Amino acid sequence: MENRKDPLLGISMERAAFFFDIDGTLAALQETPEMVSIPSHVRKDLSQLSKQCGGALAVVSGRPLSQIDQLFNPLVLPAAGIHGAEWRDLQGVVSRTSTDPQTLKRIEQRLEQGIKQLPGVVLEKKRIAFALHYRQARAWSHQTRELARTVAEEFPGLALQSGKCVAELKPASIDKGVAITRLMQQNPFNGRVPVFFGDDLTDERGFKVVNQLQGISVKVGEGQTQARYRLHSTDDVYAWIKQVLEPRIRQSPPLRSVQNGTVSRSF
Predict the structure, then answer these.
(1) b/e for 75-98, b at 16 or more Cβ within 10 A?
(2) Model's pTM, two decimal places?
(3) CB–CB of 20/180 below 8 Å?
(4) Cis, bond preceding 74 (omega within 30 deg of 0)
(5) How confident is the model at residue 264, as a pLDDT?
(6) Could you give phi then psi for residue 257, rounded to 5 degrees?
(7) Could you give phi then psi for residue 7, rounded to 5 degrees?
(8) Which residues are catalytic?
(9) Across residues 250-257, what is the average pLDDT?
(10) Which of 105, 136, 195, 224 meets the CB 3.0–4.6 Å disulfide criterion with 216?
(11) 235 and 99 in contact (C-beta within 8 Å)?
């Protein structure tokens, strides 16, 4: 029987655990990472949502914690940064995955040398991970991905993670699925129903874990996905959060069910 209700309408704030990606989910994509921002009204709504669910709201991002805090200022949330290489719990305790500094230096030098032949490609250093951004140099997309693939093969334990106009190199042991699993083992997330919003290939492992936990996975935007539901845009995410906070509002777009990467029905 087809369910025409938003699946979250039957979940109380005491039972839900919310996880949000940033770029493309809570913040519209921009030409460079530095141009991204989260509207003040969204930060305010997230603060209210966090209070209503007892603090069981976390950010799961490829960005480091320092950048996450800048985007959410003055709000400080539990978070998994650099795909889970950095952690902060509800009490503010931070832990980090470590990697040999000399190896990181060699990777950095290898990437810097490689992008000299790719004008417009930008190397972002994320402590123990690296991102090659080619949004402003899309003509070099294939060469950028090939450079990242080659470097990943040269350094054991390094994994290539593709995204929207970005190729990331990170420790193979970390991803957003691992990050959500770890957060779900901690209070106040433990025992709740996970709800994860993401938009990119980097979020797919998070969707997989949430599905395994019988949670609610939401893809923002189009494209093939393992997520079970979909919203069109960041504005739709904003409207959805507002509706959860103010149930009398019925103007936000419904979550749409997804089957095999395509929309099957609306709720």
Answers:
(1) eebbbbbbbbbbbbbbeeeeeebe
(2) 0.85
(3) no
(4) yes
(5) 34
(6) -70, 145
(7) -60, -20
(8) 21
(9) 65
(10) 195
(11) no
